[in-house]
Amino acid sequence: MRRLLARSPIDGFVLAILAAVVVAAFFPARGTFAEVLDWAVTIAIGFLFFLYGARLHPREALNGLAHWRLHLTILAFTFLVFPLVGLAIRPLVEPLIGHDLYTGLLYLTLVPSTVQSSIAFTSIARGNVPGAIVSASASNLIGVVLTPLLVVALMSGTNGVHISASSVIQILLQILVPFIAGQLCRPLVAPFLKRYAEPTKFVDRASIVLVVYAAFSEGVRNGIWSIVSAWQVVAVAVIAAVLVIVMLALTWWSARRLGFSRADAIAIQFCGTKKSLATGLPMATVLFGGSVVGLIVLPLMIFHQIQLILCSWLATRYSRSHDAVDAR
């Protein structure tokens, strides 16, 4: 089974998430189990962001500020250009997929960049790896605060999305406070997390799978599958693929026009176009309520897998072209 998953073009983590969706569709949490699950998800989200805080080294972001143009460009694509694109496509895509799924598309444009895959693809493509490390880390550090603020500014008041004062307090208690606690405890727990990297990685991924199961269970109880058709899911996948391709082209073109080197342009392309499933899913559970949660996270799940496939192909292509030049 492990070899089969290794050969699969779909990431094993995404397969687990899809499995959670299927299980929730047929066996949603109900009654007392649903109440216990809600408490478990609350604890899991807090622990998840504690781990994020404990893993991210603030010194990396501070030491890398010398290349401020690179980091500012990546952050601008992540938190400015992406949301503007999300708003601009509304007249085109909302009539096709409906308001709730469009809300999910807009939400995915607001979440921070990935860390591991952004750095990995930059490394494979022979890009600026130190720059990618700093920018991806900074994106997650800033995103803990900026993503909820962008959601409040751009999404509050839309149908099914209501950000109240209690929601803001919940954001602080479930996301920001654990994250800060993780940063403060980092000198104590970082060696342990480094020594047991694989087990802790399993714990945080299992937490996200639990979040997905809880979100989709609530959606099923509220009739999510009666309002989402197979055509809408296919349409979201096509839109997500086009969005990834457009952003990959835009980041590369802009980086070269701004005079960045090839290595810097690669870092900008991979860090500026990625969206974090690991951060976006638990945030959505805190920010949104009711059956709309399942619809909102669905586009992010689809986008995440598509970006991994396309960026993997592109990084390999860059690596081969780099090796060909060196061989001359």
TrEMBL record:
InterPro entries to which the protein is assigned, alphabetical: Na+/solute_symporter_sf (IPR038770), Put_Na-Bile_cotransptr (IPR016833)
Keywords: Membrane, Transmembrane, Transmembrane helix
Entry keyword Cell membrane: no
Source species, domain of life: Bacteria
Listed transmembrane segments: 12-30, 36-56, 68-89, 101-121, 133-155, 202-224, 230-255, 276-302
PANTHER family recorded: SODIUM_BILE ACID COTRANSPORTER 7 (PTHR18640:SF5), SOLUTE CARRIER FAMILY 10 MEMBER 7 (PTHR18640)
Protein name (record): Membrane protein
Keyword Kinase part of the UniProt annotation: no
